[in-house]
Amino acid sequence: MNDGPIITINSRKFDQSIRRSWTARLIERRPQLLVFEGVFDRDVAHPDLGLISAGTISREFYWLDRWYNVFLFHEPAGEFRNYYCNINMPPSFSGTTLDYVDLDIDVVIWPDKRVEVLDIAEFEKNARLFEYPETVRTTARYTLDNLIELIEKGGLPT
């Protein structure tokens, strides 16, 4: 793994409360893109992804001007596991912490190229609960459509 700094990543709800927090190493920095690499330190039973084994490598792509991020998972032995994409508001980066508001909708791409869109109902529920402005609702749906188109064209980072 690269020798870049360890950064705290906070996935937040719309009210700014932290949904999840983890650390990853910053391995690449461009003007509008930050790439991190993390390693799962324990097994995680995920309701949609199944068991993510300790040692699974997560390469994480965050664009500072886009409403999605992309996680590229590899099994501990190195084989491709899946992509996991979040629809989210553009992140902010302080140099030590990356924060983003997760808007609930997720897209998973499996090794067989099957694409699953998850948590649309959760998005709708939280849009009402947190009173997402119409611009946020519209942009999230538009971003999902664009992300699906990008996936179909094979445009995800590797």
Runs in which pLDDT lies below 50 for 5 or more consecutive residues are: none
| Average pLDDT level | 96
| Shape by Cα distribution | globular
Q: How many helical elements?
A: 2
Report how far the terminal alpha carbons are from each other: 16 Å
Rg computed from alpha carbons, rounded to a whole number of angstroms: 15 Å
Share of β-strand residues: over 45%
Work out the helicity level: 10-25%
Specify the biggest β-sheet.
7 strands, mixed, barrel
Looking across the biggest beta sheet, what order are the strands in? 1-2-3-6-7-8-10
Query: What's the count of strands?
Result: 11
What is the H/E string?
Answer: EEEEEEEEEEEHH
Category by helix and strand content = alpha+beta
Provide structural commentary.
There is one protein chain. The protein starts with 5 loop residues before the first strand and ends in a 6-residue tail after the last helix. Helices cover 18% and strands 47% of the residues. Strands 1-2-3-6-7-8-10 form a seven-stranded mixed β-barrel. A two-stranded antiparallel sheet has the order 4-5. It has 158 residues and is of the alpha+beta class.
